[in-house]
Every structure is written in structure tokens, then in C-alpha cells.
């Protein structure tokens, strides 16, 4: 507990230097204790431009767990850490209680301060959870089949004798020796992995059935066939979830691209000649359209701020995600919001002045930094004077310059990175 208190004080001190912090929160029920907990995690960029995250709260929320109770718990956490005026966004699952909680929080916060873009970016819906809801609709169509495969995996793993017998079947069929994967029922991606793995051992399960008279849950050929079909459909979802669920690297710039790929895959499967796949894809497509019917502004802005994508990503993806009229409207909205966001940051920086950072933490252009480091004398006040006087040429914002330059090709990224590393080394 002493170590905990020391580390807590140290973290609280470091958070004083953070301008903006984003929160994620989720609720979890302990199977053994039958108690519901809520976790709040803070995410921010430190002064060295490293992504940081810390669990700020892990508390029991007694029933009833409504929107007001969730909102109060988050506010208490923010107050405890002194970040109530620094919260930029809050990411939550798509539950009604969370919608209410965020609404309460927005109303309360906006009484004392202004949120970025009038609060349009404050409430972030968890993309991984939306994908989970879409996929669960599809998995319900083969719930019985999944139950049989899950029970088959459990049956084999329940005793050492059965495992040995199953391995003998695998070896006789000369299949690759892999362990059967158990799944977590609430995580569809683990169910997908269990199905994909079990399909490789389809013949081994059939052989095992002939040797074990008590094994009564072996799927029929038609059931294996349906499991194979749904796995082919869910592969795009699994890839997207795997990539955007990363926690050690930025992921928000990847969402738009992955959502568009999923939508395109569902559009293709919805026209499939196989009736089962066609109906399955159509049902999942309805859920995707429901949750991404409204433009996810943060997802679009993150893509625009990726130098390999910029506005081209939005202009490419939106016509594939929305109708022609809606796509045009949403593209205009993204441009409006990103300009508004830039102006807010520009005013903020002007008011507080440019921060003084160590050389390794400054992110000017490579030529400017090289010139600055090589010069013997710095005449900062003269440079400031020139900047004020030289107004003959119309100055454009950095955002306009950024958006009008061509996007970086992926093969150019290592070159640019290498240039920055050389400058830093100097």
C-alpha cells in the first residue's frame, strides 16, 4: 500500500503537466463474487510524444447501475486525479446507460468550460464493441452449431485420456498437431478463433466419435459446412478487431479504412448466390448501417491527420459507406469540424504562448531545426519582429498547407522517419 500511495502521488504530479486526457470506461461482472466493477483508464500523450495509459479507477458500483451512477463515479475519479478540466473525450460501449451518463457529463462540464467543437467529439463509441454487436447477430444464426463445437472442444479437453485419444486421431490423419482453442463466450473474436481451429480438426472429431461412444455432440456435415461459411464472412471482422484493439500503438487513424473494408465485404456477401450467406450478410449489414449511419467525426478526423491518407481517405470511403447525398454532407461536416478544431488549438496556443520544449521534443520542419541547431547565434526577438511586420504575403494556416500537399506514399514513410532520426541525432 505504501508503494501504491507513492506511485499515485507521482502519477498525480505528472498529470499536472498534461493538457488533455481521454478516458475509456467499461463495466465488468465478477463471476465468482457476483459483483459489478467499473474501470476508468486515462490515455494521453506525454511531453516526449509517447502514448501513455493508466488505470485511474477500479471500483464496485452497486445496483442499480444507471447513467447517473456511472456519471457520478467518473466525476469522482476525475476530481480525485485533478483532471476534471482536462478531459477531451470519453470512449464507452454502446449501452443506453452509457449514453445517459455521457449526456449528464456533457451538460455538467459545459456549465463551467467549453468542450472541443461544442462537444461534438466528447462522446466516442467503442468501434470494437460496435463490431462485436454486428458479429453477434451473425453468430446467433448458428448458435446451436457453435454450441456443439464448443461442447466438443470442452469434451476432449475434459480429461487426459480423451486428449491422448484425440491426438492419436490427429496423428493418424496426418494433421498439423495443434491444440484445440477454448473460447470466451462474450468475445466473438475468440469464438471465431475456436471455430477456425476446430474446422481444421473436422475429420479428427469424426474419427474420435467412432472411438468414444459417449461423445454425442459431434457436428453433422451440414453444420461444419455452415461454420466454414460464417468463418469466411467473419474473417474481415476478425482482422479489423485484431488491428484496432491494439493498445501499444495509435489505432484511431485505422478505423475508417477497416470499417470501409467490412462494409464492402458485407455488400459482396449480401449478393452471394448461397442463400445462407446472403441472409447472414444482409442481417449484419443492417447493424453496420445502424451504428455508422451517423458520421463518426473522430474516426474521420483521425484518418485525415494521418499523412498517408488526409482528406483523400474520407473522400474515398464515405461514398462507399453512405448514399451520395449523405456522403457529400458528411464530407463537408468533417471539413468544417477539422477547421474548427484547428482554430480552437491555434487560439489556445496563441493565448498561452509557444511551449518551451527540449530539442528532442520539438517537432518543427527538418530544415528549420537543422538551421536552428547549426547557427551560432539565436536572434529570437528579431525573428518575432519580422514575423509581425512581414504581412505582405497572405499567410495560410498549417492545416491548409497540410491538406493541400499530396499524401505520403507508404514507401516514403521510412525515408521521412530516417530524416527525423538524423536530425534528432544531430
UniProtKB/TrEMBL annotation:
A Pfam family recorded for this sequence: hAT-like_RNase-H
Signal peptide feature range: none
Entry's Gene Ontology molecular function annotations: DNA binding; zinc ion binding
Domain of life: Eukaryota
Keyword Transcription: no
Record domain hAT-like transposase RNase-H fold: where: 245-345
PANTHER family named among the record's database cross-references: ZINC FINGER BED DOMAIN-CONTAINING PROTEIN 39, ZINC FINGER BED DOMAIN-CONTAINING PROTEIN 4
Record protein name field: hAT-like transposase RNase-H fold domain-containing protein
